[in-house]
Amino acid sequence: MVAAARAIETYRDDALAQDRFAEHFVRAARASARWPLRPGEVPGGDTNPLWGRLGRYFGLRTRVLDDFTLRSARAGARQVVLLGAGLDARAFRLDWPPGCAVFEIDRAEVLAFKRKVLDGLRATPRAARIPVAADLSTEWSGALTGAGFDPAAPTTWLAEGLLLYLPHAAERRLVDTVDRLSTAGSALAYEVKLAAPPPGARNHPVYSSTERQTGVDLLALFDRDPRPDSAATLAARAWSTAVRTPFDYTRRYGRGPLPEPDDALATNRWIFAARTTS
Ligand SMILES: C[S@@+](CC[C@H](N)C(=O)[O-])C[C@H]1O[C@@H](n2cnc3c(N)ncnc32)[C@H](O)[C@@H]1O
């Protein structure tokens, strides 16, 4: 779904992000082979709750995290870890500074699908790319260090669209692990929902529209446990943190979703953390 949103975003006249790999992932999977890939193919255009407003959200998120990742790598954190990398094609599309290594952690089946599609395109990464098959809800640091990750080197960590789906205990463990493996100069960005969607937001058209257009029940995917305050945990451990809403960036970039009644995005937060001391 995120890949389809990125494909559509790529071809918007006012695109915030470009991902020319995204459409190939969507076409390659049977379940999504007939989903729209261009703005002109979206029924209702920007009024479509899924491919319009939520799609714009994914486009904005992609751009903000592209900027974060490149800024952090250029500042010296050239070891990059994509947590729940999925179909993220940043290793192939960003203008990395020399000497970057991009570790992509996800489930083995997801990485195998991604590899098949990218091999078919003869895609060449623009940094060293190291896929790491691991379950992020259990112990995963051994798989990462076994793949060549160096805890003594500053790292750019990214968890885009991951923690919303993990149980709170897994989020706590993940934050502990990132903290333990991060030296001074490391940076982390991640997305959370502060709480399960409020009762009004459960009736938001994005959920019924998504189910109708794709068969996916988004609400069923979100973990419903009370969420841990990971930003506070990091702040207590010598990270500086900034908690932003997506709407902050809509205003900054002039495109993207704005708040609306019973908003399904109301509790979404993007957190940026930086470690200045070891
Ligand atoms: C919504 S996708 C986001 C993918 C990518 N970060 C992006 O924004 O394009 C969530 C990804 O997290 C991965 N994921 C979810 N739970 C996981 C787990 N326990 N271990 C490893 N990967 C997991 C999924 O396989 C999926 O690729």
Automatic annotation (TrEMBL):
Superkingdom of origin: Bacteria
UniProt keyword Hydrolase, yes or no: no
Keyword Metal-binding part of the UniProt annotation: no
Database matches in SUPFAM superfamilies: S-adenosyl-L-methionine-dependent methyltransferases (SSF53335)
Enzyme class, spelled out: transferase
E.C. code: 2.1.1.-
Any one GO biological process: methylation
GO molecular function: methyltransferase activity
Keywords tagged on the record: Methyltransferase, S-adenosyl-L-methionine, Transferase
Biological role: Exhibits S-adenosyl-L-methionine-dependent methyltransferase activity.
Family: Belongs to the UPF0677 family.
Name under which the protein is recorded: S-adenosyl-L-methionine-dependent methyltransferase
